[in-house]
Design brief:
This protein folds into 6 domains: 2-89, Archaeosine Trna-guanine Transglycosylase, Chain: A, domain 4, CATH 2.30.130.40; 97-174, Up-down Bundle (Methane Monooxygenase Hydroxylase, Chain G, domain 1), CATH 1.20.58; 219-269, no CATH class; 282-466, P-loop containing nucleotide triphosphate hydrolases (Rossmann fold), CATH 3.40.50.300; 472-556, Helicase, Ruva Protein, domain 3 (Orthogonal Bundle); 565-765, Ribosomal Protein S5, domain 2 (2-Layer Sandwich). Helix 9 runs antiparallel to helix 10 and helix 21 packs across helix 22 (658-670). The chain is of the alpha/beta class. The strands form 7 sheets. Strands 1, 2, 3, 4, 5, 6 and 7 form a 7-stranded mixed beta sheet that branches. A 5-stranded parallel beta sheet has the order 9-10-13-8-14, sandwiched between helices. The protein has a 4-stranded mixed beta sheet with strand order 17-18-20-19. The chain is elongated and about 150 Å long. Helix content is 41%, strand content 18%. The chain is built from 25 helices and 25 strands. A hairpin with a 2-residue loop joins strand 17 and strand 18.
C-alpha cells in the first residue's frame, strides 16, 4: 500500500478525516502517524472515499479508517512514492467474560466524564450506538484532551484487552482532572454567589435603615464615629482606618469580621485622650498619706517630692520629660502596708488606681499581649489596666514582682523591662494592638517581699524603697487608729461599745505577735472582738465592754512569745544571731556542740551553701587562733563539731551568720557563755575581718522585739545605723567592729579568773 505520513495527528479505524495529501488512483492507503520524522509502529488502513480539488490546485482527500495495519518491507514505485508491505490486523468481534467487564467499566467511565462536561445527550447516544468492541476503545481518539503520544499508545495496542485497559486508565485520569475542575468551579461560583447575595442584602439593609431614620445603623459608620471621638494619635488613627476598610470590604458576615471588630473595640477602649487632673498640692498629699498610714516616711517623702517637682515644672512652663516617669518599688515583709499604700498614693495625687497581681505569672503574653494570629488573642494586662482606669495616667500597682515565673512560654520579667524603664516606656508596644502606647504618665508602684527574687536587670530600673517593718510604738499606733476601729466595725460593734487601752495593745504586740508587719496583729485583735461580740449577743457582756488583761487572755490564750535570749544563751556554745527572712527580721540562736568522732564538722538546720561555708570558715579561724583564744589545741583531735541553727524546718542561707557561728564555737571551747543581751551579725573572712551585711534596720527591729540591748555590727555598716528608728536607737547600743577579736571581747562573758574587760564606747559617744 501507499504510505501516507500524517504529522502529529492520529487516525483510528472507523474515523473519517479530510487530508490534503496526494494519493493518485489508490483506493486504500496506510496512514502512518509521524512526529519529528519518527513513525509509529502501527498505522491505519484507510479507504479513499472522495477527492476534491481545491482552489490553487491542491487536492483534498476524504478518508475513512478501516482497521490497523503493521508496516513491513518498503520500496519506491515508478513515481517515487513509498510503498510498504502491510500486515492487516483487524479487531476480533468475539467477546469473552473479561472483555465484557472491561467494556462495561469503560462505558461507565465515559458516561461519568460526559456528565461532568455537561453533555446534552448526543455524544452519550453516539457512544451507546457503538457495538464493536474495538471501535468503542478507539473513541479515545475523538477526545481532544489526550495528547499525540497517548493516542499513539492506544493505536499501537493491538490486543483488545490491553487497549481497553489503557483506554480506561486514560479516561480515569481525565475524569479525576475534570472532578477537580468541577469542584473548584463550584466553590468559586458558590463564593461569588454568596458575596453577591451578602452585598445585595447589606444594601437592602442600609436602605431599610435609611427609611427608618436610623442614621447610625451602619457598623462601619459607628466605628468611624467612635474612632473620631477616641482622640487617638495620628499613627493609631491610620491603623484603625486600615482595619475598618478591611471590615467594609469583607462584610460583617465574614468569619474574620468578628476578629477585626474585637480588635477595633479594644483599640477604642483605650483612653487615648483622657487624663486625670493631678492635685499638685504637696501639703494636702502629705496629710492624706499621714491619715491613711502610720510611719512609711520614705514613701511619703518620695510622693511629696514627685508632686513638688511636677508643680514647679507647670508653674515655670518647663515641658514635661517623657523619659522621667516615676517608678517606685516597695520591698519589705508581708503585712507592712506595701499594697495599701498604692490606693493612698492615687488618692493623694487625684488619680485612678488599678492593681495588677503578678504573682505566679509565667506567660510573657500576660504583659505584652497575644499576637492577633492566635485564636482567642487578647491585649496584655497593661492595656486592660488602662481600660479599667479610664485614663492614661493612673497609679498602677504591680503587686508581687518577685514572684514572677518563667517557662517555655517566655519570661514575663523580661517583658517588664520596657514597661518599668522611664527611657523606653513612652513607646511601649502591645503585641495585640500593635501600636505604641505612651506609659510615661503612668505612676508605677511595684511591691516585693525580697529583692533577691527580682532579676538584676529589672531591679536596676526600679527606685527601691525598703519597708523594714514597724517598731512597737508604731504598731500600737496603727492598732489604735486603724486596725481596732476597722475590726470593731467588721464584727458589728458600735463606737463606744468596746474600748481598749494602749497597754493592752502593747501586750498583744509583745506577747502574741512576732512579725515585721501588722497582719497577724489585726487577726489577734479581730479574734478578741469576735469573742466580745459573741458575749454581747449572748447577753454575757453589757456595753461598754473594756478589753482588760483577763478578757485578752480568755480570747487569745496563753502568751505565745517570750524573751528567751537569757535562757537560750546560759549554756556555753549558744550565740544570738540576727537575720533577715521573707517575713522580716528574726533572731537565730546558733548552737555548737562537740563530741568524739572522725568527722570534723556536722551542720544541720537546712543551711544553704553560703551558710555552710561560713561555718567552715569559723571553725578554721578558731583552730588557727586557738592559742590566742586560750584553747588547748588537743581539743580538736578526734573531735566532731556539730553546729545547728533552729528552726530546722525553715531553709536558711546567707553570709551574715559568720560572726555568730564563730562566737558559738569559741564559747563552746572556752566555756564562756555569750552575754544574753548581745545579738550580732556580720560576715567573716579567714583573716578574721568582719565584712558588711544588708538589712540592718530589720535586724535591729528584731533585736529590739527580742529584748536585746547590745547589737554587734560591722564597722562598714556604721552609716546604716542612722536609718534605724530613734525609738529603737534609744534602747539598743550598737557596737561597730572590724575584727573577730573585738566581737569576742564584746560578746563573751569574762573568764572566771579574769575581770570584765572595759566596754567599747557605743555609737552614741563616737565622734
Amino acid at each position: 500500500m501507499l504510505l501516507v505520513p500524517i504529522e502529529d495527528i492520529v487516525v483510528f479505524p472507523h474515523m473519517t478525516v479530510t487530508l490534503t495529501v496526494e494519493v493518485g488512483d489508490e483506493e486504500q492507503v496506510l496512514l502512518m502517524p509521524r512526529h519529528d520524522n519518527e513513525y509509529a509502529k502501527v498505522g491505519t488502513v484507510a479507504q479513499v472515499v472522495e477527492k476534491v480539488r481545491l482552489p490553487g490546485g491542491a487536492v483534498a482527500v476524504q478518508l475513512t479508517g478501516l482497521y490497523r495495519g503493521v508496516a513491513g518491507a518498503a520500496e519506491t514505485d515508478a513515481l517515487g512514492r513509498l510503498r510498504v508491505a502491510v500486515e492487516e490486523r483487524p479487531d476480533p468481534t468475539e467477546l469473552d467474560g473479561k472483555l465484557r467487564e472491561l467494556i462495561t467499566e469503560y462505558r461507565g467511565t465515559v458516561e461519568e466524564i460526559l456528565e461532568l462536561r455537561g453533555d446534552d445527550g448526543r455524544i452519550q447516544a453516539f457512544v451507546r450506538s457503538i457495538t464493536e468492541p474495538g471501535a468503542l476503545a478507539d473513541t479515545v481518539g475523538y477526545a481532544p484532551d489526550f495528547s499525540f503520544e497517548q493516542k499513539v499508545r492506544v493505536l499501537e495496542a493491538l490486543d483488545l484487552k490491553e487497549r481497553f485497559a489503557l483506554a480506561i486508565e486514560l479516561q480515569r485520569e481525565r475524569m479525576a482532572e475534570l472532578q477537580v475542575r468541577h469542584r473548584i468551579h463550584e466553590d468559586m461560583e458558590s463564593g461569588q454567589q454568596k458575596q453577591q447575595r451578602d452585598y445585595i442584602l447589606r444594601k437592602q439593609l442600609e436602605s431599610i435603615r435609611k427609611e427608618l431614620g436610623d442614621d447610625e445603623g451602619s457598623v462601619a459608620e459607628e466605628y468611624r464615629a467612635k474612632i473620631a471621638e477616641a482622640g487617638m494619635p495620628d499613627s493609631v488613627v491610620e491603623q484603625a482606618e486600615r482595619e475598618l476598610k478591611r471590615l467594609e470590604r469583607m462584610g460583617d458576615q465574614n468569619a474574620e469580621a468578628q476578629v477585626i471588630r474585637t480588635y477595633l473595640d479594644w483599640l477604642i477602649s483605650v483612653p487615648w485622650s483622657k487624663r486625670s487632673e493631678d492635685v499638685l498640692d504637696p501639703v494636702n498629699a502629705r496629710a492624706v498619706l499621714d491619715a491613711d498610714h502610720a510611719g512609711l516616711e520614705d514613701v511619703k517623702d518620695r510622693i511629696v517630692e514627685f508632686l513638688a517637682v511636677r508643680k514647679l515644672r507647670e508653674e515655670r512652663g518647663i515641658k514635661a520629660d517623657k523619659k522621667a516617669g516615676a517608678i517606685l518599688t516597695l520591698i519589705g515583709p508581708p503585712g507592712t502596708g506595701k499594697t495599701s499604700i498604692g490606693e493612698s498614693v492615687a488618692r493623694a495625687l487625684g488619680r485612678e488606681f488599678v492593681r495588677m497581681s503578678l504573682g505566679g505569672i509565667r506567660d510573657e503574653s500576660e504583659i505584652r499581649g497575644h499576637r492577633r494570629t492566635y485564636v482567642g488573642a487578647l491585649p496584655g494586662r497593661l492595656v486592660r489596666a488602662l481600660r479599667d482606669a479610664g485614663t492614661m495616667n493612673p497609679v498602677i500597682l504591680l503587686d508581687e514582682v518577685d514572684k514572677l515565673g518563667a517557662d517555655w512560654r517566655g519570661d514575663p520579667s523580661s517583658a517588664l523591662l520596657e514597661v518599668l524603664d522611664p527611657a523606653q516606656n513612652h513607646s511601649f508596644r502591645d503585641h495585640y494592638l500593635d501600636v505604641e502606647l505612651d506609659l510615661s504618665d503612668v505612676f508605677f508602684i511595684a511591691t516585693a517581699n525580697m529583692a533577691d527574687g527580682i532579676p538584676g536587670p529589672l531591679l536596676d530600673r526600679m527606685e527601691v524603697i525598703a519597708f523594714d517593718g514597724y517598731t512597737v510604738d508604731e504598731k500600737v499606733a496603727i492598732a489604735r487608729d486603724y486596725l481596732f476601729p476597722r475590726q470593731r466595725e467588721r464584727n458589728g460593734l458600735l463606737d463606744g461599745e468596746v474600748t481598749v487601752s494602749e497597754e493592752i495593745l502593747r501586750t498583744v504586740v509583745a506577747e502574741y505577735t512576732r512579725e515585721a508587719g501588722v497582719r497577724q496583729l489585726e487577726r489577734e485583735i479581730g479574734k478578741v472582738l469576735r469573742k466580745t461580740a459573741t458575749g454581747v449577743v449572748a447577753a454575757k457582756l453589757t456595753p461598754p465592754v473594756p478589753i482588760d488583761l483577763p478578757v485578752l487572755r480568755d480570747a487569745l490564750g496563753r502568751q505565745k512569745f517570750f524573751q528567751e535570749a537569757a535562757e537560750r544563751t546560759a549554756t556555753p556554745g549558744v550565740a544570738t544571731g540576727l537575720a533577715v527572712t521573707g517575713v522580716g527580721g528574726d533572731v537565730l540562736f546558733i548552737e555548737a556542740m562537740r563530741m568524739k568522732g572522725t568527722e570534723s564538722l556536722v551542720l544541720t538546720g537546712q543551711l544553704g551553701d553560703v551558710m555552710k561555708e561560713s561555718a567552715r570558715i569559723a571553725l578554721s579561724w578558731v583552730r588557727a587562733h586557738a592559742g590566742e583564744l586560750g584553747i588547748d589545741e588537743s581539743a580538736f583531735d578526734e573531735t566532731t563539731f556539730h553546729v545547728h541553727v533552729p528552726a530546722g524546718a525553715i531553709p536558711k542561707d546567707g553570709p551574715s551568720a559568720g560572726v555568730t557561728m564563730t562566737t558559738a564555737l569559741v564559747s563552746l571551747l572556752t566555756g564562756r557563755p555569750v552575754k544574753h543581751t548581745v545579738g550580732m551579725t556580720g560576715e567573716v573572712t579567714l583573716q578574721g575581718r568582719v565584712l558588711p551585711i544588708g538589712g540592718l534596720k530589720q535586724k535591729a527591729l528584731a533585736a529590739y522585739a527580742a529584748g536585746l540591748t547590745d547589737v554587734i555590727v560591722p564597722e562598714r555598716n556604721r552609716g546604716d545605723i542612722d536609718e534605724v528608728p530613734q525609738e529603737v536607737r534609744d534602747v539598743l547600743r550598737f557596737h561597730p567592729v572590724m575584727s573577730l577579736h573585738e566581737v569576742l571581747e564584746l560578746a563573751l562573758e569574762p573568764a572566771a579568773t579574769q575581770t570584765a574587760p572595759a566596754r567599747k564606747p557605743d555609737v552614741a559617744t563616737l565622734p
